[in-house]
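Q: What would this chain look like folded?
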Amino acid sequence: MDTRYAIAPIQRIGPFFGIRTQHRIFYDAVVVPGAVMLLISGSWLIAVFHDGWSFIHTPWLAGMVLLFIFEFIEGNTVIRIYFVRLNRLAEKALQTAKFTPELRRTRAQNIPTFTHFLDLPILLLIVMLGVLKPDNWLLLIYGTIFAIVTAAALMLLVTRLYPHYEQNYNTGR
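A: My prediction, written as structure tokens:
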């Protein structure tokens, strides 16, 4: 969960740091263990009910696995690196009691925002593949394209909904 836009009006570092701390605890206590639990249980179910690696020949299941692996890697690389950097900069800014230019630039990065908005469309695509169980790869291909376009549109829309955010954080003021 990317909190940059949800807290855009916050101009003091104290409340921002508090929200970041709560977010880090939630992420480490719920999101990561949940993803690991899904990985273990999903692997077991595939091994038992789909004869191990033969799932690759089943488009809907292979698509679900591929998308889950993508989300797992993306969430533990791009997002994890971003959050670690954001937390480190927030701790530094807390010492000066104001947002630093480096923290503002980090909050305004587009790649973490894009990957944040990509999470929900990809999750919906995973569920759709499991429910519809298509026998070809078209739903995976078109759904992935739709998820990317949706994430890009959401990223552009949200940044436009918060002009105050753009003025204060993207310009480095």
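The radius of gyration is 19 Å.
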